[in-house]
Every structure is written in structure tokens, then in C-alpha cells.
What we know:
19% of the residues lie in helices and 31% in strands.
Amino acid sequence: MNNFKITWTVEEKEAPVLLRDYLKTKQISKAALTDIKFHGGALFVNKDEVTVRTLLKSGDEVTVCFPPETKSESMEAEDISINIEFEDEHFLVVNKLAGMPTIPSLYQPKGSLAAAVLFYYQEKGIPGTFHAVNRLDKDTSGIVLIAKHRFAHSLMSKQQINKSIKRGYIAFVHGKIKNQEGTIDAPIGRNPDSIIERMVREDGQHSITHYEKIDYLPDHDFSVVRLKLETGRTHQIRVHMASIGHPLLGDDLYGGSLDLINRQALHSERTIFTHPFTGEQIKLEVSCPTDMKDLWQ
């Protein structure tokens, strides 16, 4: 069985306990158990297949074999290299290049990060499909966190809801920002005149962006800012910075100029999250790509 598996050993302080109650402490929900039961998964205790009514004792080895994963028909593997910053049996963290969509779309069906990761999985014999914990716009570079299986993705989704995944961005914006730091608290919704563009509007979704100015380049009149998001709306940084009169360089959708760079000057440079299986705090940082470095220097 080539399904993804997780194994735990029951500790003395945990026993005796029914398997279903033990799995609840491992954050495996009733819905996940139903999925396991009816869609090709299995539960094992000491390598014997069992049901959730099994009584566990100290030292028992519990293995959850999750149902096989099938990739979306819209996603095809492509031989595209990826820059891996972190990998274990549960997660893959990639430094995405600018110009690469996270997932394929009607407008760009080829060349996506999803296609590249699926090819990598095939080469390495990893039985998974593409589960992006976060997504970046096509022309935004930087860190994308990917779960290798549905259970890991569901645990990270809970961390996102609890706002315990921290992400930091760096951006170049037009003009000299007056304040050294600030917070933009403005709701974001769709622009009714566009299928792509977002805008600040009263009936939009609650959105908060914190920024800190770290440099100003007077020769080209742009500021370098670091940003942290409390919410994760589509185009949030781009919309918020444009709303205070400082659109991103290269972001012509929201009023930025293409004179210095031909894509929005935005890079996801940092992420911090707690590994849900080991409890370890994972901190990753990737520097700006060449086009932004050259501008800054």
C-alpha cells in the first residue's frame, strides 16, 4: 500500500484508551476517520488492521494509513526545476521564481509551481498531490509552503486560522513613505469592473497590513518596506500600498510604473511556523532575487 502513513507509539500515561479517542488527541477528526474507512485507508495496531473500537495499551504501535491521493485532472507534471529550502516527509518549502504561477490557470496552463512539484514527486516516488498552504501571485517571488498530504494540509490550515503562521515580505514602493512604520486597516473586495482587480471598499473583507520603511532611494524615488500580514486577501499588499499612494514598482495593475522593473517588486522573504508533527519551530528566510537586488544596490 503506497498511501501516506503516520505511526505513533502509545505512551504509558496515555493508556488504556480506545483507538478513536487516541486518534482524536492526534487531531484526526471524525471526517478523516470516515475518509480512511471508506476511501482506501486503514488503521493498524502492531501491524494488525483494526477498527476504532480497539483498546490500546502502553507500548502499542499505532499506524494510520491515509487514503490514496489523486491529483486534479487540470494539473499535469512538468519537468521544471524548483528551489527547495526545506523538506521532510510532511512538507516541502520552495522559493518560487517570479513569473511562475502557483497553480495553472486558463490564462497560463503551463509552467506552474504545481506542475513542477508534481514532477518532483513522481521522480522521488512521493505518493502525493499538490497542497499549497499559501499561494503567491504569479509575479511575486519567494516562499511557498506545501503540504505533502491532506492531513498535514489540514493541520496547517488550522494554524492559518489561528494566525500562528508568520510570513514576512519585502517590497519596493513608489515615493518616500512619510512614517517609519504604520498599519493599513482597510477592507478589500473585488473591483466590480474587473475579474482580476481588487480594491479597498467598505463592504470588503477585513484586511490588515503592517509595514516598516527600511530604506529610501532618492535617485529613483522609491522606498523599501518590510511587511507583515494579519490577513491573507488576494493582492492585499498591492492594494493596500496603492491605497495610501505608494503602489509597488512594476505593478501596473494598481498604478505602479514599469520603468525600473517589469513585475511587481514583491518578495516573500520569511516564514515561521510550528511543525505540527515534531513541535519544532521552523524559521526560513530567502533573500531577494536578482532583479530586486540590482535595483536596491
